[in-house]
Amino acid sequence: MQLAQAALRSRKGLVITEANWVPTLDQEMFLLPAMRGDKPLDQWCYSWWQLSPGAISAWLEVIGFEVVKHYQHQQLYSKMQIYVPHFTIVARRSR
């Protein structure tokens, strides 16, 4: 389900968790395969686009949500046995 569709169906709030492959970028959206360097695509890229936490937070505010919490954390990617940076955004519908 797309984020826009989930937001339309949400009465109270949303929790969004996403990999953050380039955690130094905060207000952008970028094509991940273009950033993989010389690594084979199947060893680096697991999605096509990266939406930064700042971009998602700004978009949520535009469509009527207030960001309540923003977490940074690591998740184990078991296929490659590496920890990948992630973010979680907790947002509630503005009144």
* Overall body shape: elongated
How many separate structural domains?
Answer: 1
| Biggest sheet record | 3 strands, antiparallel
Report the order of strands and helices: HEEEHEE
Separation of the first and last Cα atoms = 25 Å
Q: How many DSSP E strands?
A: 5
Biggest β-sheet: strands ordered side by side in the sheet:
1-5-4
Count of helical regions: 2
Nearest-angstrom radius of gyration? 15 Å
Helix content: 10-25%
Low-confidence stretches: none
Tell me the β content. Answer: 35-45%
The structure class reads: alpha+beta
Indicate the mean pLDDT: 81
Please give a structural write-up.
This protein is an alpha+beta fold and 95 residues long. It has helices at residues 3-9, 53-62; strands at residues 13-19, 29-31, 49-51, 65-77, 82-93. The strands form 2 sheets. A 3-stranded antiparallel sheet has the order 1-5-4, with helices on one face. It has a two-stranded antiparallel sheet with strand order 2-3. The model has no long low-confidence stretch (mean pLDDT 81).
Q: What are the main properties of this structure?
A:
alpha+beta, 5 strands, 95 residues, two-stranded antiparallel ribbon, 3-stranded antiparallel β-sheet
